[in-house]
Amino acid sequence: MGTYFTKEHEWVKVTEGIGSVGISEHAAHELGDITFVELPKIGTTVTQFGLLGSIESVKAASDIFAPVSGKVVKVNDALDTAPEVVNESAEDGGWMAQVEIADEAELKNLMTQAQYDDYLKTL
Amino acid sequence: MEEQLQATPICGRHRALNALMAPFGGWDMPIQYEGIIAEHSWCRSSSALFDICHMGEFIFQGDFVADGLEDVFTFSVQTIPLGRSRYGFLLNERGGIVDDLIVFRLAEDKVMIVVNAATAPKDFAVIKERLTGGSFTDITAATGKLDLQGPLSRYVMVEVFGEEVATLPYFRFITLNILGVEAIVSRTGYTGELGYEIFIPADKVGELWDLLLEDERVKPAGLGARDVLRLEVGYSLYGSDIDEETTPLEAGLEGFVNFETTFVGKEALLRQKEQGPPRQKVAFEVNGRRSPRHFYDICSGGENVGMVTSGVFSPMVGKGIGIGFVLPELAVVGTPLTICHERITMEATVCELPFFKDGSVRG
Predict the structure, then answer these.
(1) Rounded Cα gap, residues A16 and B155, in angstroms
(2) Which of B1, B33, B89, B98 shows its CA 20 to 30 Å from the CA of A81?
(3) B236 min Cα distance to partner chain A (Å)
(4) A window 39-98, beta carbon within 8 A of B
(5) Domains and CATH numbers, chain A
(6) Rounded to an integer, what distance in angstroms lies between the CA atom of residue B231 and that of residue B235?
(7) Residue A75: beta bridge partners?
(8) What angle do the packed helices B153-161 and B205-213 form, to 10 degrees?
(9) Which residues in chain A are closer than 8 Å to B32, comparing Cβ atoms?
(10) Residue B106 to chain A, least CA–CA distance (Å)
């Protein structure tokens, strides 16, 4: 189904109803050295654009918002001890949570890769 | 109103290195090159080069006692031996810290005063007003300053400046010829590592920067890494941890106040010493990797008991670390504190300084 992005620089990659969620390479680069990732608890229900977790770098602390609504079914707890993985691989190994997507129609509220790339040019 | 930023003589070199630049103390300064943690780690293991041209330098020449300089700072100037420097404070009448600074004894009748960038104009005016004679000059614009810091910095310095640097002890300096000019090389710094502060005419600082970077043990580091380095060893940052509303007693810096001497603010400090300060600096370690930050609240038993003034994730400790001010009864090692900000809370414990104890600073 591809990867979709929010204006707040989260991404969701959808495979068979499960969305893997993280922050974009652009966001990771802007944050600089990431030192802490607050992951949601498994079983939590998140709503689209509602709070999912938070991320801290040497420079700043930021909230992470859920790109889609649904139930958190898995978290990348390797980030508890190695949050720098988000800098190294923001859109792959640096995924944060997997969400059982409640309503795939919500994806139309997000940007495609091409739209997100255009959006970054406007910032 | 857009603040007019000043640029150091080597600003173009930072841009050429793709540094992330940001305003600091009225100057356009490099925050990071490769990355804050990589630069921090290089400084703790090898030798990092910092552009510190933004800091202020003043020269006083005259009779220290007769012209009033002896009573300006919280320490005696006339007893600083030639070739040595002393750290301390310029205070206001209330005992608040106008600035923290270092005085270098250049000659029998001459000192260099090195101050923070943001406070330099204010400091110059305050000191000038307290002087009754002598000559007092701001040489900031004409003076370049580079800091080379890290356990390997001595080897680099010896290669560039010669053997004389090898035996230079902590808080001593020498004047050396380099690139056809005189430079002051001082065994001081702001990182907790063995290191040097180099003062050289501004028009030569670019050449010296290039020369030092030729050594493969040297990498440039920005103010981001410098802030992590200084906090890990508990050094205060003016404007964050200390300011005109903070006294050296509250900030746990009484060791840099000589009550045997006369200075502006002494009566206020003596009064505070007698009554006990209303708040006290504490250092604390967070139980986890979250970073406390300036302005976060410090709580205990559900009550707000103070404020964080500096905080960061410490790569050396592997936890969040911070400095803040709390009610004096809580400033006891082992006391549990809660750091709060909006929906963030973190548990912390008061600890001793420095957070990082194995620096090479005295090595």
Answers:
(1) 60
(2) B33
(3) 18
(4) 54, 56, 58-59, 61, 83-84
(5) 3-104 (2.40.50.100)
(6) 6
(7) A97
(8) 120
(9) 32
(10) 39
Contact across the interface for A33 and B37, Cβ inside 8 Å = yes
Q: Which residue has tokens 């702001």?
A: B190
Contacts of B228 in chain A (CB under 8 A): 58
How many angstroms separate the CA of residue A33 from the nearest CA in chain B? 7
According to DSSP, residue B103 is labeled: E
* B94-153 tens-digit pLDDT: 999 999 999 999 999 999 999 999 999 999 999 999 999 999 999 999 999 999 999 999
**Positions of E strands within B69-158:** 85-91, 97-107, 110-115, 135-138, 143-149
pLDDT tens figures, B241-258: 999 999 999 999 999 999
Longest dimension (CA), chain B: 63
Bridge partners (DSSP) listed for residue B278: none
Predicted confidence at residue A1, as pLDDT, reads: 66
| CA within 13 Å, CB half, B264 | 19
Q: Concatenated DSSP letters for B165-189?
A: GGGPPTTBEEEEEETTEEEEEES--
Predicted confidence band of residue B1 (pLDDT cuts 50, 70, 90) = very low
The amino acid present at B268, given as its one-letter code, is A
Write down the number of H helices and E strands in chain B.
7, 20
Indicate if B94 and B145 belong to the same structural domain: no
DSSP letter assigned to residue B75: S
Angstrom CA distances, B170 to B70, B84, B302, stand at 23, 9, 45
HSE-CB for B83 with a 13 A CA cutoff: 7
Nearest by CB to residue B313, choosing from A36, A38, A54, is: A36
Count A/B contacts: CB-CB distance under 8 Å. Answer: 39
Tally of structural domains, chain B: 3
Q: Which structural domain range is residue B183 located in?
A: 6-53+141-232
- What are the Cα distances from residue B93, in Å, to B59, B72, B74, B244, B252? 24, 11, 12, 10, 19
Minimal Cβ distance to B228: which of A38, A54, A58: A58
